[in-house]
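Worked example 3. Consider a protein that binds 3'-deoxy-guanosine-5'-triphosphate.
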Amino acid sequence: MITNTPSECQALVLIVDDEPFIRKQLRLSLEREGYRIVEAQDGREALVVFQQLHPDIVLLDAIMPDIDGFECCTQLQSLEGGQHTPVLMITGLEDQESVDRAFAVGAIDYVTKPIHWPVLRQRVRRLIEQFQTQQKLEAANRELQRLVTIDGLTQIANRRRFEEYCIQEWQRMAREQLPLSLILCDVDFFKSYNDTYGHQAGDRCLQEIAKAIQNTIKRPADLAARYGGEEFAVILPATAAEGAIFLAETICSVVRTLAIPHRKSLVSSYVTLSIGVATEIPQPNSDFQTIIVVADRALYEAKTAGRDRVKP
Ligand code: GH3
Ligand code: MG
Ligand code: MG
Ligand code: MG
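Given these inputs, the predicted complex is written out as C-alpha cells:
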C-alpha cells in the first residue's frame, strides 16, 4: 500500500463511469488509499458534481451514454477550476484515435481497462501530488505579485506598481492623443507630526490618508499610490486639467475633514495636504517622468503659497 501525505489523503476523487461495478471497484481501491470519493454515473452528473464539490482529480470513463467522456472532458475545461483539475481517462479504447482525442480534449493521462490496479493507484497519487504542488506554487506567486506591488503600511499601490502603470498609460494616451493627469500630494509638517505624536501615530495617520485618497477615486483606470514616505500620487488617464483639479480639491478637503489633530502645524489645527496637479497630452517617444517633474513643481508652489491647497 502506498502511503499518502495528509493533504493527499483529504483529496477528493470524482469517479465517473456508467457501470456501477467499475465505480464500486474504483471506490474500494481508492478508499483504501485514504481518498474521499464521490461518484457520477454519466457525463451530465459529473459536470454538476464537479461544480458543486471541486474535486482534486477526475477519473473519467470514455464511453458513456448521452454526454460521453470526451465531451464531458471538453465541457469540464470551461468550468471554474476545470483547467486546474487533472482528468484521468479510464477506458477500454486503445486505438490511436481515441488516445489522441482524450489528450486533445484536455485529459492529463490515460489508463486502459482492464485496470491494472497498482499502476492506477500510482498515477492517481502522482497526479494529485503534482497538482497540489502546482496550486501551492500559483498561490505563492499570486502573493508574491501582491507583495511587490502593494505598499505594506497603507495597502495601496506602491511606487513600483505606480510607475509601471504610468508608463503603460502614458503610452496608451500618446497613441490615443488624450490628456493624462497626475496628482502629487505631500503631508504638511509631517516631521513635526511624528515629533509630536510619535512615529506609530504617524504611521496610522498615513494609513488613514491613504484610505481617504483611495476612497475618493472612482474610475477603474485611476490609480492611487504611496509614492514616497509621506507622499501620495494619483494617475488619471484620459482626464483633462479641470477634472484633475476638481479631484485634487476633493482629496484636499476630504483629508482636512478627517480632522486628525496636528497642534504643531503652522497652517491648521489638523493634518493637511499640499497638492500639485499636472496635465499633458503625451507626445510620442516622450517620457512620463516629464509630467512628474511638472506636478512636483506645482506641489512646491502649493507649499510656498501656504500649504493646505491645490496648485495646477
Ligand atoms: P512639509 O510641509 O514641507 O512637507 O514638511 P514635512 O515635515 O512634511 O517635510 P519633510 O520632508 O521634512 O518630512 C517628511 C517626514 O515624513 C519625515 C519622515 O520622518 C516622515 N515619514 C516618512 N515616511 C514615514 C513613515 O512611513 N512613517 C512615519 N511615521 N513617518 C514617515
Ligand atoms: Mg462506459
Ligand atoms: Mg515630503
Ligand atoms: Mg511633507
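Take a moment to read the result before moving on. DSSP finds eleven helices and ten strands in the chain. The pocket of magnesium ion (ligand 3) is lined by residues 186, 230-231 (CB under 6 Å).
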